[in-house]
Write a structure and sequence with these properties.
With about 60 residues, the protein is mostly beta strands. It has 1 helix and 7 strands, in the order ββββαβββ. The strands form 3 sheets. Strands 4-1-5 form a 3-stranded antiparallel beta sheet. The protein has a two-stranded antiparallel ribbon with strand order 2-3.
Amino acid sequence: MKVKALKDFGYFYKGFNYVVKEGQEIEIDDKIIQGFIRDGLIEEIKEVKETKNKKEVR
């Protein structure tokens, strides 16, 4: 899932250390995403798709 970092943070996942900077957009595994959202570290990027008659948010 594509997310945007709200703060600088680092995490360890599957044998690798990751460092994420504030404002950076990253692709992250859905299995670990909920804890980061709960802690206020990331937010989901919503795709806005405009059609002729309406806006569709995904």
